[in-house]
Amino acid sequence: MRIHTVTGGAGLRLHVREWGKEDAPTIFFIHGWSQNHLCWKSQYESALAEDFRLVAMDLRGHGMSDAPLEAAHYTDPQLWADDIAAVIDQLNLASPVLVGWSYAGYIICDYLRAHGPGRISGINFVGAATTMNKAALGTLIGPGFLDHVIGATSDDLPTNIEAIRNFVRGCTYSQLPSELLETAICWNMTVPAKIRAALLAREIDSDDVLTALALPVLMTQGEEDTVILPAMGRHLLASCPRATASWYAAAGHAPFLENPGRFNSELYQFARDAHFDNHGQSR
């Protein structure tokens, strides 16, 4: 495992870790709201690391990246776009496949709108959100998020802890092993409530980006997801002509945690196909 500090948008320092072979095709993991790189442990400690270069960042405001409290650091889509571009540029990632969970769907679309698709070879949207407005509440974004968001953005610590515990439990359909569940609650609690709130102070419509996207796209979605509803996945499929779907029965918002064997196998195949064309030439 190698650790990097990347200078992101507006000079913010981003914490990035990588595993695997430096000269192998790259998979770049981007986590969701209130998470960090640790959520991808079942991927970077798997056989994926034998054949790929695996890179995972902590988003601005999360994990071990810089976390200024002012909302302006989180409401400008250009900053999110520049963070992704900075990791790709400064670590010399050659045509990575982006894997974006939940809120990372917004961030990947920010990147595509600002920098275009030319530096990446494919995208795996995982329980990913691409629309955030009032109309999406309850139709695309579900009670697994909405029921806890007020508490999760409260400065009252007991209220905050209770909301995050319930939110993390609600991210999966089956109960996670106790050690993983406890660790997940811990990494969620490292994100200040003000930053969680700031991430939600945007209105986002990514349909124009998805419609124009010609890259290979895999949409991975748990059928029992109550955080980002399956309707969001269907919306993405309808908007993105190149997208294919992988639906997980008896799985919630985090299929890569609930069924890592299947998830890793599908990601392996998708990344391999995205990195190499029909003639075996690197993209």
UniProtKB/TrEMBL annotation:
The keyword Hydrolase applies. This is Alpha/beta hydrolase. Pfam families: Abhydrolase_6. The keyword DNA-binding does not apply. GO terms for molecular function: hydrolase activity. Residues 27-264 form the AB hydrolase-1 domain. Keywords: Hydrolase. Signal peptide: none annotated. InterPro entries: AB_hydrolase_1 (IPR000073), AB_hydrolase_fold (IPR029058), AB_hydrolase_sf (IPR050266), Epox_hydrolase-like (IPR000639). The lineage of its organism: Bacteria, Pseudomonadati, Pseudomonadota, Alphaproteobacteria, Hyphomicrobiales.
